[in-house]
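Structure in, sequence out. Go:
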Protein backbone atom coordinates (compact mmCIF):
# COMPACT_ATOMS: atom_id res chain seq x y z
CA UNK A 1 0.00 0.00 0.00
CA UNK A 2 2.77 2.36 0.98
CA UNK A 3 4.59 1.65 -2.28
CA UNK A 4 1.44 2.49 -4.26
CA UNK A 5 1.00 5.78 -2.38
CA UNK A 6 4.67 6.55 -2.81
CA UNK A 7 4.45 5.86 -6.54
CA UNK A 8 1.37 8.09 -6.83
CA UNK A 9 3.17 10.94 -5.06
CA UNK A 10 6.15 10.60 -7.40
CA UNK A 11 3.83 10.76 -10.42
CA UNK A 12 2.04 13.87 -9.08
CA UNK A 13 5.30 15.65 -8.30
CA UNK A 14 6.69 14.77 -11.72
CA UNK A 15 3.57 16.15 -13.36
CA UNK A 16 3.93 19.45 -11.52
CA UNK A 17 7.62 19.68 -12.39
CA UNK A 18 6.99 19.11 -16.10
CA UNK A 19 4.10 21.57 -16.47
CA UNK A 20 6.12 24.76 -15.85
CA UNK A 21 8.82 23.52 -18.23
CA UNK A 22 6.26 22.99 -20.98
CA UNK A 23 4.72 26.39 -20.31
CA UNK A 24 8.12 28.05 -20.47
CA UNK A 25 8.91 26.26 -23.71
CA UNK A 26 5.62 27.35 -25.29
CA UNK A 27 6.37 30.95 -24.30
CA UNK A 28 9.73 31.00 -26.08
CA UNK A 29 10.46 32.38 -29.54
CA UNK A 30 13.41 31.65 -31.80
CA UNK A 31 14.50 34.51 -34.08
CA UNK A 32 17.20 34.57 -36.73
CA UNK A 33 19.08 37.56 -38.06
CA UNK A 34 22.18 38.15 -40.17
CA UNK A 35 25.56 39.88 -39.82
CA UNK A 36 24.29 43.27 -41.03
CA UNK A 37 26.12 46.06 -39.19
CA UNK A 38 25.28 48.62 -37.99
CA UNK A 39 21.80 47.09 -37.54
CA UNK A 40 22.63 43.53 -36.44
CA UNK A 41 25.88 41.68 -35.81
CA UNK A 42 27.55 39.18 -33.49
CA UNK A 43 29.58 40.32 -30.50
CA UNK A 44 31.30 37.91 -28.11
CA UNK A 45 29.23 35.05 -29.44
CA UNK A 46 25.89 36.82 -29.01
CA UNK A 47 23.55 38.73 -31.29
CA UNK A 48 23.93 42.49 -30.86
CA UNK A 49 22.95 45.80 -32.43
CA UNK A 50 20.00 48.19 -32.31
CA UNK A 51 17.41 45.79 -33.76
CA UNK A 52 18.46 43.19 -31.19
CA UNK A 53 18.13 45.73 -28.36
CA UNK A 54 14.60 46.63 -29.44
CA UNK A 55 13.56 42.99 -29.85
CA UNK A 56 14.86 42.08 -26.40
CA UNK A 57 12.87 44.97 -24.92
CA UNK A 58 9.70 43.71 -26.66
CA UNK A 59 10.28 40.15 -25.47
CA UNK A 60 10.83 41.36 -21.90
CA UNK A 61 7.57 43.29 -22.01
CA UNK A 62 5.72 40.23 -23.34
CA UNK A 63 7.47 38.04 -20.74
CA UNK A 64 8.73 35.72 -23.46
CA UNK A 65 12.08 34.02 -23.70
CA UNK A 66 13.56 35.01 -27.07
CA UNK A 67 16.54 33.23 -28.58
CA UNK A 68 18.31 35.24 -31.28
CA UNK A 69 20.67 33.45 -33.66
CA UNK A 70 23.00 35.15 -36.15
CA UNK A 71 23.18 33.24 -39.44
CA UNK A 72 24.05 33.95 -43.07
CA UNK A 73 21.02 35.65 -44.60
CA UNK A 74 20.14 32.98 -47.14
CA UNK A 75 20.19 30.25 -44.50
CA UNK A 76 18.22 32.30 -41.99
CA UNK A 77 15.60 33.29 -44.56
CA UNK A 78 15.23 29.68 -45.70
CA UNK A 79 14.64 28.52 -42.10
CA UNK A 80 12.14 31.31 -41.50
CA UNK A 81 10.19 30.69 -44.69
CA UNK A 82 10.04 26.95 -43.98
CA UNK A 83 8.62 27.66 -40.53
CA UNK A 84 11.58 26.24 -38.62
CA UNK A 85 11.97 29.43 -36.55
CA UNK A 86 9.44 31.92 -35.20
CA UNK A 87 10.81 35.15 -36.60
CA UNK A 88 13.42 36.92 -38.68
CA UNK A 89 14.89 40.39 -39.00
CA UNK A 90 15.94 42.80 -40.38
CA UNK A 91 13.30 42.83 -43.14
CA UNK A 92 11.26 45.13 -45.36
CA UNK A 93 7.49 45.17 -45.64
CA UNK A 94 6.99 43.76 -49.15
CA UNK A 95 4.24 41.56 -50.67
CA UNK A 96 6.66 38.63 -50.82
CA UNK A 97 7.61 38.99 -47.16
CA UNK A 98 3.95 39.39 -46.09
CA UNK A 99 3.12 36.04 -47.69
CA UNK A 100 5.34 34.33 -45.10
CA UNK A 101 5.37 36.71 -42.15
CA UNK A 102 3.34 39.04 -39.99
CA UNK A 103 5.31 42.26 -40.55
CA UNK A 104 5.73 44.32 -37.41
CA UNK A 105 5.54 48.05 -36.99
CA UNK A 106 8.60 49.77 -38.50
CA UNK A 107 11.55 50.15 -36.15
CA UNK A 108 14.39 52.01 -37.89
CA UNK A 109 14.27 54.44 -40.81
CA UNK A 110 16.88 53.92 -43.52
CA UNK A 111 17.55 54.66 -47.17
CA UNK A 112 19.00 53.05 -50.24
CA UNK A 113 21.66 55.03 -52.05
CA UNK A 114 23.81 54.59 -55.11
CA UNK A 115 27.58 54.59 -54.73
CA UNK A 116 30.08 55.29 -57.50
CA UNK A 117 33.84 55.36 -57.86
CA UNK A 118 35.40 58.51 -56.43
CA UNK A 119 35.61 61.26 -59.01
CA UNK A 120 32.82 59.84 -61.16
CA UNK A 121 30.72 62.51 -62.82
CA UNK A 122 27.43 61.04 -61.66
CA UNK A 123 24.76 62.17 -59.23
CA UNK A 124 21.39 60.42 -59.17
CA UNK A 125 18.63 63.02 -59.26
CA UNK A 126 15.64 60.70 -59.37
CA UNK A 127 15.52 60.21 -63.14
CA UNK A 128 15.77 56.47 -63.77
CA UNK A 129 16.96 57.08 -67.33
CA UNK A 130 20.24 58.26 -65.79
CA UNK A 131 20.94 54.54 -65.27
CA UNK A 132 20.78 53.61 -68.95
CA UNK A 133 23.88 51.70 -70.07
CA UNK A 134 25.21 51.21 -66.54
CA UNK A 135 26.20 48.10 -64.59
CA UNK A 136 24.82 48.09 -61.06
CA UNK A 137 26.03 45.70 -58.37
CA UNK A 138 23.78 44.73 -55.47
CA UNK A 139 23.69 42.19 -52.65
CA UNK A 140 20.92 39.66 -53.02
CA UNK A 141 18.49 38.20 -52.80
CA UNK A 142 17.66 41.00 -50.37
CA UNK A 143 15.58 44.11 -49.87
CA UNK A 144 18.18 46.07 -51.79
CA UNK A 145 18.00 43.76 -54.82
CA UNK A 146 14.20 44.03 -54.71
CA UNK A 147 14.53 47.83 -54.65
CA UNK A 148 16.94 47.71 -57.59
CA UNK A 149 14.48 45.65 -59.61
CA UNK A 150 11.87 48.35 -59.07
CA UNK A 151 14.35 51.10 -59.88
CA UNK A 152 15.51 49.75 -63.23
CA UNK A 153 12.16 48.44 -64.46
CA UNK A 154 11.65 49.77 -67.97
CA UNK A 155 15.18 51.16 -68.25
CA UNK A 156 17.05 49.67 -71.20
CA UNK A 157 20.66 48.53 -71.32
CA UNK A 158 21.06 48.18 -67.57
CA UNK A 159 22.99 45.20 -66.26
CA UNK A 160 22.23 44.02 -62.72
CA UNK A 161 24.91 41.96 -60.96
CA UNK A 162 23.89 40.04 -57.83
CA UNK A 163 26.66 39.44 -55.29
CA UNK A 164 26.84 37.21 -52.22
CA UNK A 165 27.30 40.03 -49.70
CA UNK A 166 27.61 43.80 -49.36
CA UNK A 167 31.36 43.92 -48.85
CA UNK A 168 31.92 42.05 -52.13
CA UNK A 169 29.76 44.60 -53.94
CA UNK A 170 31.76 47.54 -52.59
CA UNK A 171 35.14 45.91 -53.16
CA UNK A 172 34.29 45.15 -56.79
CA UNK A 173 33.10 48.72 -57.34
CA UNK A 174 36.30 50.12 -55.82
CA UNK A 175 38.38 47.82 -58.04
CA UNK A 176 36.53 48.91 -61.16
CA UNK A 177 35.03 45.46 -61.76
CA UNK A 178 31.70 46.95 -62.87
CA UNK A 179 33.38 49.09 -65.53
CA UNK A 180 33.72 52.86 -65.92
CA UNK A 181 29.95 53.34 -65.58
CA UNK A 182 29.62 51.00 -62.62
CA UNK A 183 27.42 51.73 -59.63
CA UNK A 184 26.28 49.96 -56.47
CA UNK A 185 22.89 50.11 -54.75
CA UNK A 186 23.19 49.61 -51.00
CA UNK A 187 21.74 50.68 -47.68
CA UNK A 188 23.58 53.94 -47.10
CA UNK A 189 24.36 53.33 -43.41
CA UNK A 190 25.64 49.84 -44.22
CA UNK A 191 27.77 51.16 -47.07
CA UNK A 192 29.35 53.90 -44.98
CA UNK A 193 29.95 51.49 -42.10
CA UNK A 194 31.72 49.00 -44.38
CA UNK A 195 33.80 51.69 -46.06
CA UNK A 196 35.04 52.81 -42.62
CA UNK A 197 35.51 49.38 -41.03
CA UNK A 198 37.14 47.78 -44.08
CA UNK A 199 39.17 50.92 -44.89
CA UNK A 200 37.94 51.02 -48.47
CA UNK A 201 38.94 53.98 -50.58
CA UNK A 202 37.94 55.37 -53.94
CA UNK A 203 34.17 55.36 -53.37
CA UNK A 204 31.58 58.10 -53.01
CA UNK A 205 27.85 58.32 -52.32
CA UNK A 206 26.02 59.26 -55.52
CA UNK A 207 22.42 59.99 -54.55
CA UNK A 208 19.47 58.64 -52.57
CA UNK A 209 17.13 56.19 -54.32
CA UNK A 210 14.53 55.28 -51.70
CA UNK A 211 13.54 55.95 -48.09
CA UNK A 212 12.21 52.95 -46.14
CA UNK A 213 12.02 51.29 -42.73
CA UNK A 214 13.16 48.00 -41.24
CA UNK A 215 10.89 45.72 -39.23
CA UNK A 216 10.58 42.27 -37.65
CA UNK A 217 8.88 39.32 -39.35
CA UNK A 218 6.89 36.74 -37.35
CA UNK A 219 6.27 33.44 -39.11
CA UNK A 220 2.57 33.02 -39.96
CA UNK A 221 2.72 29.24 -39.51
CA UNK A 222 4.12 29.48 -35.97
CA UNK A 223 2.92 32.80 -34.54
CA UNK A 224 -0.80 33.45 -34.24
CA UNK A 225 -2.45 36.67 -35.36
CA UNK A 226 -3.23 37.48 -31.72
CA UNK A 227 0.40 37.03 -30.71
CA UNK A 228 1.52 39.16 -33.66
CA UNK A 229 -0.90 41.90 -32.52
CA UNK A 230 0.47 41.66 -28.98
CA UNK A 231 4.00 41.99 -30.39
CA UNK A 232 2.98 45.11 -32.30
CA UNK A 233 1.25 46.57 -29.26
CA UNK A 234 4.43 46.14 -27.20
CA UNK A 235 6.51 47.65 -30.00
CA UNK A 236 4.09 50.57 -30.30
CA UNK A 237 4.31 51.21 -26.56
CA UNK A 238 8.09 51.27 -26.67
CA UNK A 239 7.99 53.67 -29.62
CA UNK A 240 5.39 56.09 -28.25
CA UNK A 241 7.11 56.23 -24.85
CA UNK A 242 10.43 57.21 -26.47
CA UNK A 243 12.09 53.99 -25.38
CA UNK A 244 12.83 52.87 -28.95
CA UNK A 245 14.50 56.20 -29.78
CA UNK A 246 16.57 55.91 -26.59
CA UNK A 247 17.70 52.39 -27.53
CA UNK A 248 18.73 53.57 -31.01
CA UNK A 249 20.47 56.76 -29.88
CA UNK A 250 23.87 55.13 -29.09
CA UNK A 251 23.95 53.83 -32.67
CA UNK A 252 23.06 57.22 -34.21
CA UNK A 253 20.20 55.64 -36.16
CA UNK A 254 16.74 57.20 -36.55
CA UNK A 255 13.63 55.60 -35.08
CA UNK A 256 10.72 55.05 -37.44
CA UNK A 257 7.27 56.52 -36.93
CA UNK A 258 5.15 54.62 -34.41
CA UNK A 259 2.72 53.32 -37.04
CA UNK A 260 2.56 51.29 -40.21
CA UNK A 261 3.40 53.30 -43.32
Amino acid sequence: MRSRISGLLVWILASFSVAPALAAESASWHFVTEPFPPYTYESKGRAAGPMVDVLEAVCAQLKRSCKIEVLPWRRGLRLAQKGEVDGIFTILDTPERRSFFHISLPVIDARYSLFAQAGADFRFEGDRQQLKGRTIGVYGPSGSSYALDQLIEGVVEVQKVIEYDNITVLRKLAAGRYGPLGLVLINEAVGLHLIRSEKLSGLQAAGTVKQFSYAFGLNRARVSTDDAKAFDAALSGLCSSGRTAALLKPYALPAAACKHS
